[in-house]
Amino acid sequence: MTGATRSAEVIIIGGGLHGSSAALHLARAGVHALVIEKNYVGRHASGVNAGGVRTLARHLAEVPLALASRELWYRIGELVDDDCGFEQHGQVRVAENAADADALRTRLQTMTDHGYTHEQWISAEDLLDMIPRMAPSIQGGLIAREDGAADPYRTTLAFRTKAASLGARFMEGVRVDGVARADGQWRVDTDAGTYTAPQVLNCAGAWADRIAAQWGEPVPLAAISPMMLVTLRMDHFLDPVVLGTGRALSFKQRTNGTVLIGGGRRAWVDRDAEWTELDFRSLAEGARTVCDLFPHMRDAVVNRGWAGIEAAMPDEIPVIGRSSRHETAFHAFGFSAHGFELGPIVGRIMADLITTGTTDMPIAPFRIDRFSDAALASSPSQKEQDE
User: What is the biggest distance separating any 2 CA atoms in the chain, rounded to whole angstroms?
Assistant: First the structure.
């Protein structure tokens, strides 16, 4: 391989949705990135999640990003030349009992206090009119009528394909071993040789803490493995995505009639071996929740189950932004099992930061040094040491 092909304007570590989205937005700005992915694009979190395009029930810090990203989802075909299976039927978070209803009304008041109107109360009567097969004991819920869902693997592949068509390069099956600053460049050592770039973006998902640690930015990342089940095809009974409140649940029926069941229940995971094993006891608890809310699901036949590997942060919001120690390094990871909807806007944010140094989105809550402010305050920054 020639020296020219071993260098790039930006190297992106990790080819999931956020890495591929960043590559696309960079390419649209005329910057050709090299994306290095140790498996294949969409192998873990990005390609095997529930596909929720959800602004509902977001952490307050994420709400502005989620709303901005949803606007991009509405025009996703213009962005990636594929509709990504996006459907806009809304998402609803249901109250099974009085405690759930109280929690949701408190949430609604919080959203109102912050000026957000995309979440609204839906009465039990209106909810049952919308979803007649739901248990009549339901007590209403919160609905985001403009939310939706998409096909996660198809989406990630569409971002990759569009980025590549605009000049981004993707290397799959290549593992990054080390990333260090040398002679004004970032040196990325891989099992396929060394690559260099003036700027680098860490989108390494459940393995991103290892890159951050090499840059002097240790973070308390945990590898998690959310489980999913899918049934055989059933007659159509559901349009919106249904989320639980007091009990974990994410529930939707796809256009082919199969029903996708998630909700954050976790498999056992070994990230070094990239191995997961389903926890069938936990899945059984989830099945009880499904049957309580949708009694006819007792007759459903589960076809298969799976689990990807994702990064979770202690505060359950991601790391997005510039490195706290290196001006030319950036992070986007730790989406804690709810990053799919954010993919389009996070890619744009990272491209803006890399090309202009600024973003119009409020990303201060996602800074990487939020986990080590005290330690950083008592030690010189890498920038100071370099100077």
Answer: 68
For the chain, the domains span 4-48+153-219+315-386, 91-145+226-307
Does position 236 have pLDDT exceeding 70, yes or no?
yes
SS3 content of the chain, % helix, strand, coil (to 5): 35, 25, 40
Contact 142, 92 (CB under 8 A): yes
Q: Which amino acid is at 16?
A: G
Query: Are residues 334 and 211 in contact, defined by beta-carbon separation less than 8 angstroms?
Result: no
d(CA 387, CA 385): 5
**33-37 and 10-13 beta bridge pairing:** parallel
Q: Using an 8 Å Cβ cutoff, are 205 and 276 in contact?
A: no
Span of 90-99, 192-201, 303-312, 371-380 with lowest mean pLDDT: 371-380
Q: Which CATH number fits domain 4-48+153-219+315-386: 3.20.20.60, 3.50.50.60, 1.20.1250.20, 3.40.50.2000?
A: 3.50.50.60
Element (H, E) at 170: strand 169-172
pTM score, whole prediction: 0.92
Superfamily of domain 91-145+226-307: D-Amino Acid Oxidase, subunit A, domain 2 (3.30.9.10)
Per residue in 265-282, pLDDT (tens digit) is: 898 989 888 888 889 888
323-345: per-residue pLDDT in tens?
999 999 999 999 998 999 999 99
Rg (CA), the chain: 21
